[in-house]
Every structure is written in C-alpha cells, then in structure tokens.
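User: Quick sanity check before I run a bigger batch. Here is a single chain. Can you write out its predicted 3D structure?
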Amino acid sequence: MPGYLVEDERKVTTKRLQEMKDAGKKIAMLTSYDYTTACIVDGAGVDVILIGDSASNVMVGNATTLPMTVDQMIYHARSVVRGVKRALVVCDMPFGSYQVCAEDGVRNAIRIMKESGCDAVKLEGGVEILDTVRKILDAGIPVCGHLGLTPQSINKFGTFAVRAREEAEAEKLVSDACALAEAGCFAIVLEKIPAELTRRVAEHVKVPIIGIGAGPADGQVLVIDDMLGKNKGFSPKFLRRYADLFSIITDAVGQYVSDVKEGSFPNSDESY
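Assistant: Done. Predicted structure follows.
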C-alpha cells in the first residue's frame, strides 16, 4: 500500500535525495527508535528515518544525548531497519564514538553499518571532524552532516538557545557546511539557527539541507515523539504537533484500568 504523497515507491537512496532536491521536491524526515513505529512512519511515506541519539531523551529519560552508546544505537537501528521498506535509514553516531580520533570514528561507523543494516550515519560538527568524515566516506559509508545546535556539545554551549545569531559564528557555519559538502556528505542537518542563515547555506552548497528549527529548507526533520504530542513539557517554537497522543493514550489506559477494576474486562466474548 503506497504511503501518503509517495510518487515513487522505490527504496530511497542518497542519490535519490539529491534528485529530489534538484527537482525541487521537499524531503520529509522523522526519527524512529523501534520496529512498530518504523513500520508506520515508512508506510506513511517519510523519505528518511533517523535513529537519533535523541533516543537518550525520549526513550531512556536522560537530560541530554550524551549517555547513548554505540551498542544502544545499534539496538535501536536494527529494530528500525527491520520495519523499513522504502525510507533511507540514517543512524546517529553517539557522543564519544568519533570525537577521539578518526580511526575510532571509522571503526564505530563500520560497526553500526554492519550490525544494524542502516544506510548511512550522521555526525555532529564541522571542520573539527572533517578528517573523520573523509575517512568514513573513504570506507564507503554515506555521511550526513549536522551543524548549528549540536546537542552532543550542549555542555560547551551551556544552552539550547538558537545558534549563530552573531556574524562570526554564522560565517563559520557556512564555511563548515561548504567543507562537509565538498568532503562528500550527502546531506546536512541544520538545527536551531536563523532562517536567513539557512538560506545563506543553501546558496553555497548543492547537497540537500534538512532543517529543524531552521526555517524553510530542502527538507525538515522532527522527533516523532514530539510531533505526535506524546509529552507535554517540550514546546519549542519550531515544533508543530500533529496529534495529542499524550491525552489519547492517557484516556485509553485510564479506561483499561477502570474496566479491569470494575470486572468488565474481559467479558464473555473476550474469553476462550
């Protein structure tokens, strides 16, 4: 069964993402962390599924993404891959898996690809990790860049506020984006930066730009638990909620509890 607004049901590849950008077709990207959700997201027509290290927040309850390990990312990625037929599947490389040296980065990227079956990896950072990016690409692994607000560096920033409002940081971001694109990254995620800066980046690079809190771009990404309204405590300006699953699930569970306690579940039709 084709998904919503899906014109081409073939497997999405990095090459097809570039074709979409060149044709002016927008790219829809969402996170997923488990098999069941991935099946739904893929079937609904999402082009790219990201196994984000945001699993640290929404699946585990950590305050930051830093505690996630390579083993945990592989577990989530393997679960997602099993549920996907069409979307390109990208896995975040977690904090500590590529920052020490390029060799660590290549080794961990290979592990993620081999053990999960995903299609690509995503790294946070610019020229500081360029050597690692190049070596991962040399190993035959597609890389998606990530600039702007990079959550793995939250302790350095000290805030989740919008990045690159000042011209010096904005110029560095544009330079970093150019370096990542020239190195061979197939796409770049820009997180929580001014919309005008996203436009500037798009003028300098030819690869797809995926925004999150960064204004219009070639595509957009959101954390699925946020856009489905599964929590009440996270309401940034860039987030559009497409459902209120917090209320729906709470009501459903509450009704189940009542039925069990009243003895109305299971009834005779629900018993063998």
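The chain has a mean pLDDT of 96.

User: Great, the batch can go ahead then.
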